[in-house]
Each structure stands twice: as structure tokens, then as C-alpha cells.
Design brief:
By secondary structure, the chain is α/β, with parallel strands linked by helices. It is built from 6 helices and 7 strands; from the N terminus they run E-E-H-E-E-H-E-H-H-E-H-E-H.
Amino acid sequence: NIMEDQNEIKMKILLIGESKVGKTCLINSYVIRSFNINQLSTVGLDFRTKKLDIQGKQIILNIYDTAGQERFRNLATGYMKSADGFLVCFDLTSESTLENVTYWINSIKNTARKNASMLIIGNKSDLNEDREVTTEQGKQFAAKNGIDYLETSSKMHIGVDEAFETLVKKI
């Protein structure tokens, strides 16, 4: 599904996970280097583009921000079919959002193309005092599912570029 011509590769990346885990903030931190503590919940779907230059190739990332609320899940599922990669996000300050990652992984496995890449992202790593999920728990969960794991902070811009670039390299 990756669109490729001479010097340009287009990739479709989806950020999925429960509502309020920081998907929109992660995208904004990556694409426009911005963080808004009062970011509103995404309604339906949002979309951003970012261009990268890797080894002389122009890579155009079409990054889709899906709403985490249950009423929008069918919409997210529709976009899964054509995605090249997924950042499956949860909030390190909310253990229940990690538990719900299983739902999203199964959704991807049942819906997306077999060769689509995944990365599990534990977001809000700057909120150490509020953590409900340790780095070790996140790593163990990811290893159990056979998926790589990274932690990010959109607010402090920690691990954000690494998350997207790791996924691009996997794709």
C-alpha cells in the first residue's frame, strides 16, 4: 500500500487508543512542535502531514488521529484497512488505558493488512508522580504481544521523534 515513485514514499500512519491518552498532543508535538494542555478531544478523525528525508528519499507521512471514544470506533476501524503502520497509545498515568491496548491490537490484527507495523506508545512519561504503569510493565506487556515499546512525553517532547521514526523504519 506504500505509494512510491522515484524519490518519494507516502505512508499512512494511524494513532489509535482510548480517549485522552494524548494522541493529538503526540501528533502536534511531532508535526508542529506544539503542546496544548487544554487540547480538546478529537471528534471522528483528524489528519496531518509531515515530510521526512531519510537516506535521500522524501517520505511523506499522512498521520491520522482517530477519536478514542467508543462511538467513533467504527470510523477508526475503517481507516485501519489501508494503514501502513500504527502507534497504539496509552496513558502511563492510567492503567486501564494499557488494559484497553489489547482491544486495539486485536482490532488491528483483525482489520489491517498483515504486513502493517505496530508500535506501543506509553505517553505522558513526564508525569512520573502520577504513573500507574511502570516502564517495566509497559515493556512486559509489549513483549508478551510481540510488539516494540517506547515511552513519550508530548509536553516535554521526549521520545516523540523516535516513536514516529522507529515506526517509519519498521514500515
